[in-house]
TrEMBL record:
Name of protein: DUF6268 domain-containing protein
N-terminal signal peptide: 1-22
Domain DUF6268: 127-305
UniProtKB keywords: Signal
Domain of life: Bacteria
Record-linked InterPro entries: DUF6268 (IPR046235)
Length: 343
């Protein structure tokens, strides 16, 4: 009963520069006020559980500091688990405020390491990289043609946990801000511009964004926030969607090392940027419950370790081989009876 109540109150529209989703087939019923959604987009998500795995790829680490040697190894597997919850604080036709909470964990398992017990690989295998974040998204419809959206997010990213209890969580804090302004040309066509101050390319910087959501007919459409991600959508039917496209994913982790050669730096930062090309299937299981299966190729664009948090001085340059990946998700959407009541 508690789960059902949570789903009934789950977000009916989630709008961010990083990922814009809307009410799908019901969006044409809300022409009184503009939104980023277009006809036939997938339904908004209230609760999401996901697991991603990359098996078998090589890694080479080139030292940029004489206190650390270079090394190499083989990543037997790289696993990532994520859980996200979105809920509306304000859900009015013209104004929507969405609260989000998410947790992520990434782990590495190495083999064939040279030299043996290489400091970086040994540390990453023993300490999972974690992320705990909260966000607030605000969508305001100016009229039937124009809207703007804002999102602010705070995350604690790094090796925090019981082994690093001596450090305050504030030491791991990362913040992101996104903003966008859009025009709804028709129920099938939305275009907009915006920017993000975040970590898409590892280091915190300002990145531009162009929103382009368009449905061409009953089957085909495009959903894009260029250059971060673009995907082509094919609606098989109202219960099955297919996607193909690419996405850029970046992160920054604060690491507080207290042993081995890396402990000389005490506070280091690992920054990464990945490029993914993918195929994705989304399918309804039952009413409010959906699953997705995604597979593709993940290429690391940049992976670096810096001598201090926020520094520009590299101490390690990591070269990670590209690898195939698979990702599965289970997620909840607003139940049909809830959407029917809105009509």
């Amino acid at each position: 009963m508690k789960i059902t109540k949570l789903l009934l109150g789950a977000v009916t529209i989630v709008c961010t520069i990083g990922q814009v989703q809307a009410q799908g087939p019901d969006v044409e019923l809300l022409e009184e006020y503009a939104s980023p959604g277009v006809r036939n987009m997938g339904k908004s998500r209230g609760i999401v559980l996901s697991y991603e795995r990359l098996p078998q790829f090589d890694i080479d680490s080139e030292s940029k500091d004489p206190r650390i040697e270079s090394g190499s190894g083989h990543v037997r597997r790289n696993n990532k688990f994520e859980a996200r919850v979105y809920a509306p604080l304000v859900n009015r036709p013209q104004t929507k405020v969405i609260f989000g909470l998410d947790y992520g964990m990434e782990e590495f398992n190495f083999e064939n390491v040279s030299p043996a017990s290489y400091p970086l690989y040994n540390y990453l295998e023993d300490k999972n990289l974690q992320s705990l974040g909260t966000q607030l998204a605000y969508l305001r419809s100016i009229d039937s043609r124009r809207f703007y959206l804002l999102r602010v997010k705070g995350e604690i990213n790094g090796d925090w946990g019981k082994d690093n209890a001596s450090h305050d969580l504030i030491d791991y804090l990362k913040s992101t801000f996104e903003a966008g302004y859009g025009w709804k040309k028709s129920p099938n066509y939305v275009i907009g511009v915006g920017f993000q101050v975040g970590y898409t390319f590892g280091r915190k910087s300002i990145y531009p964004a162009v929103i382009y959501n368009r449905t061409f007919n009953d089957n085909w459409g495009v959903e894009a926030i260029f250059p971060a991600n673009t995907r082509v959508r094919y609606n098989v039917n109202e219960k099955t969607l297919l996607y193909t496209g690419y996405k850029i994913d970046g992160a920054s982790y604060n690491l507080f090392v207290d042993e081995g050669p890396l402990s000389e730096f005490k506070e280091i930062e690992l920054r990464r940027t990945d490029f993914k090309g993918f195929l994705r299937l989304e399918r309804e299981i039952y009413d409010f419950l959906w699953f997705s299966l995604e597979g593709g190729f993940r290429q690391y664009y940049r992976n670096r370790v810096f001598d201090e948090i926020g520094s520009q001085d590299e101490i390690l340059k990591n070269d990670l081989a590209g690898a195939g990946y698979v990702r599965v998700e289970l997620y909840a959407v607003p139940p049909r009876r809830f959407m029917e009541k809105k009509k």
